Task: structure prediction
Amino acid sequence: MSEVREEYTRENYPTSGKKYNGEKAIISLTSWRARINTVSKTLYSLIKQCPGFHIVLVLSEEEFPQKEKELPENLMVFVENELIELLWVYKNYKSFKKVLFTMDKYRDVPVISADDDCLYRFNYAEQLYQNWLSDKKAFVTYYCTRYRGYPHTGGYATLHPPYCYGDVVHKLDISKLPLIEDDILYTVIRSIKHLNHCINLNKHLLQVICIHDEKRPLHDLYRRKGRFSTKVSNMISLISKVLNS
Result:
């Protein structure tokens, strides 16, 4: 079972900054200590390019025990001026913090992923959202491959339908998964839940973003040996036992 603290539930994740005001979708991203001084560049880009969307930055109390007191001024200015929401989870779930906890809190609207090393070139959130309106069961993305017929999407810009992964954060201890790569986890859950609708807008990465930070990512996909299909198969075997129990 998950080790999420009892008080960290949908109703009372610790938050500060902007309050959700009924926006049509939420942009969600995470960051970590190595990038915490530069995530403000991404936040500025999102605020500038994607007006009208609620922006949530998810951080770990385990990584920042003093919470807001440890964060840089260039980040806190966005929180204190209520331009973004800061959402805290307890454990350091690394890349798994990006979407799942925001989705758990906000279950009635789509959650759109963003990466903390990116600057966005246009209102990608609006483009994803407008395409989603034509098929509300679909994931909408600029990059998609298939694994056994199920979409494997790019985490820098993907719209996830409302609460599509269910209560995975409370059923599964995601901190103990053998591979720290959230996009693979989403592919696995899609295969288990038979979620195969995907709208792929087929834009090259650099048409959507430019990279402002070259530090290594939170995931360990490229540091683990083995074929992609084998990694996914192993994750499916592990997770299906938990989610179907």
Q: What stands out?
A: The helical segments are 39-49, 73-80, 100-105, 124-132, 168-171, 182-193, 205-208, 228-243.
